[in-house]
Amino acid sequence: IPMFENMFISLWEFFYGNFFRYWMKWILRQMTGKCELQRIFDTYVGAQRTHRIENSLTSSKNKVLREATHVTQSEVDKCVEDIMKEKNINPEKDASFKICMKACLLQISGYKQLYADVENERKKPYDSDNLQHEKLLLKLWSLLMPKNKLKARISKQWADIGFQGDDPKTDFRGMGILGLIHLVYFSENYTAVAHQILSRSNHPKLGNTKVGYSFENCEVKYKMRYSYAIVGINLTEMAYSLLKSEALKFYLYNFVPGIPTMEHFHQFYCYLVYEFDKFWFEEEPESIMYFNLYREKFHEKIKRLLLDSNVAL
Amino acid sequence: KGLLSILRKLKSAPDQEVRILLLGLDNAGKTTLLKQLASEDISHITPTQGFNIKSVQSQGFKLNVWDIGGQRKIRPYWRNYFENTDILIYVIDSADRKRFEETGQELAELLEEEKLSCVPVLIFANKQDLLTAAPASEIAEGLNLHTIRDRVWQIQSCSALTGEGVQDGMNWVCKNVNAKKK
């Protein structure tokens, strides 16, 4: 029986996508005298509006409309005019169309551009021969440890801010320079919070309250503490995957009226760091070894929040 | 009815479960190897805080692979995962010569562990895709692998990034699953 059900659903999808949708649109057009895009502007606001406009454009049979989702900023005005010509929209009868369409197109193509920019940074590996990279890394140290001097570039001290070994460069891995940019961005813009998180995640007392295992001489103080830097890099990965899977669309469409930029993406990362820290200590994991379990739980929580088209974080 | 009984028979003969422990220093490539085994995307791997676990079907076995973070701070936790291990896979970054001594020491300590006694060990000489990688033979000599007498062992050069050599290693694993000397 489920097989027939599936067949029915795919048949319906086929006919809907190829015929019914266009008949419905035609009928509605005759009744209201407006095209689908105009009807969306009449009915929806915020992320829902942009999202529906995007779907309408993407599934359009018209090449001008389909390609509009990839428009560059400098060509957006011309693109809106082209759409109005294609759809026979009279600028005097519908004065707001031009403004609304432009705003939507900037958001839609801006999201794609943002992903391209983020991917570009992620793909750049940390390079010790690059002076800028090195400067940024040392800046991270001085932001987080203003009172302690780093004794050498290769040093066990890096573990104090949560890197794994004595040279942080290997920890950036799949996140590349983006991981470092994020760590510095958070530490620079939320220095007090960063210090608090760092001292809490290094706090021997707090790290000692729940002892999951009974073996001794085993550096009990590390029980609950998480490594600030590598957890930060893990959260960069989370922010990146959410952007890539388009899960950030509702949030960015609601939050940014025009083109979303790197700055907005970094802000979202900061939100994740702040919320994860709260989450971690509320959940009271019994050991740092369960990090990935809680990371996944947190990830699900964030994904649920982002599914709401009215999302605001 | 005939089909049902066949299905029931299939169900009653499940794959043998194998517990594989994946250890090594941080940045050795354990998580990349794990994801390569599970045919997952390896392009945005991050340092492992804690552990990852994945199950992979292979040659009639259900391989439960535990990938434990390698950072010095959490190495004390490794021993929590020793129990009932069928195979130990130890991963080495063949290009990180500066840490050969450290990785050799960690391996030697693992081989001393009572709970891991007689457990077959596969050493992956990873990152052979890098020009500066030391060949497996050099690593075997440096680590004095030939002195291991209490268990079966194997060193396999590989690149978790390209997948080269990984399957050869896993074939060895499947052949030696039941080779625990008593």
From TrEMBL, chain A:
PROSITE patterns: ELMO. One of its GO terms (biological process) is regulation of defense response to virus. Residues 132-306 form the ELMO domain. It comes from the Eukaryota. GO terms for cellular component: membrane. Pfam families: ELMO_CED12. One of its GO terms (molecular function) is GTPase activator activity. InterPro entries: ELMO_dom, ELMO_domain-containing. This is ELMO domain containing 2. It comes from Loxodonta africana (African elephant).
Automatic annotation (TrEMBL), chain B:
Mg(2+) binds at residues 31, 48. The keyword Transferase does not apply. One of its GO terms (biological process) is intraciliary transport. GTP binds at residues 24-31, 70, 126-129. It is a peripheral membrane protein. Keywords: Golgi apparatus, GTP-binding, Lipoprotein, Magnesium, Metal-binding, Myristate, Nucleotide-binding, Protein transport, Transport. GO terms for molecular function: GDP binding; GTP binding; GTPase activity; magnesium ion binding; microtubule binding. The keyword Nucleotide-binding applies. GO terms for cellular component: axoneme; centrosome; ciliary basal body; cytoplasmic microtubule; Golgi membrane; midbody; nucleoplasm; photoreceptor connecting cilium. It is found in: Cytoplasm, Cytoskeleton, Microtubule organizing center, Centrosome; Golgi apparatus membrane. Belongs to the small GTPase superfamily. Arf family. This is ADP-ribosylation factor-like protein 3. It comes from Neovison vison. The lineage of its organism: Eukaryota, Metazoa, Chordata, Craniata, Vertebrata.
